[in-house]
């Protein structure tokens, strides 16, 4: 599916070009100060840094038609592909793939896009819950984003962490024309209180499918396409993505 792409344009305002000298000077000073504080301020909006924080190899990035460049993996706090709880699955390291893409065409700002995302996930039965590992990141088109939900050991999950659940994190919003894009990584875990390892990997596909179907049924987000990100590790000697098939479900909202 081809998504409409609109280019951002920058317009020179009256203050910067035609205003009185004093006003132009004050404006220039403000821009300079904002430039100095930008690295510290951007994290407040969920932005970590630019592509310099993670220089992906060609095989770690997908370029789906009609979408921006998307990192194939959820990243840990060191900007490395995240491993599922450090667990081995069939004697291989279990790498966590991106398997959900959401495009919101109704939000008018990044803050509104985040708020709408949380509301939609809650409506789908996936509120923010405690008891999960945190500090993850995701890569979209040269930008590394911190996870949502933010703060503490939280994830979006359909059950408390003491029970087996589908859970995951979202990353964004990334501006794309007049839309906002999120990517996410979701998995299903099983819990056995008698097992030495209490939380075990069960499935990536089951969590992806359950979340996308509930969003489609209970919110304005509708399943629009199945995007091949090419992030199923098959035949790798040391890494695996379990049952993941390399597909991310794309959900979009109708234009207002």
Number of strands: 16
Mean pLDDT: 81
Shape: globular
Q: How large is the radius of gyration?
A: 20 Å
Counted by DSSP, the helix tally is: 4
Classify the helix fraction into a percent range: 10-25%
N→C terminal distance: 19 Å
Q: Give the quaternary arrangement of the chains.
A: single chain
- What structural category arises from helix and sheet content? alpha+beta
Which regions are unreliable across 5 or more consecutive residues at pLDDT < 50?
A: 1-18, 27-45
- Helices and strands, in N-to-C order? HHEEEEEEHEEEEEEEHEEE
Describe the sheet with the most strands: 11 strands, mixed
Percent strand equals: 25-35%
Number of domains: 2
Spell out the blueprint of helices and strands.
Blueprint: H1 14-17, H2 21-41, E1 47-50, E2 61-62, E3 70-71, E4 83-89, E5 92-95, E6 100-104, H3 110-123, E7 128-130, E8 137-140, E9 143-148, E10 154-157, E11 165-176, E12 179-191, E13 199-203, H4 205-218, E14 222-228, E15 239-240, E16 247-252
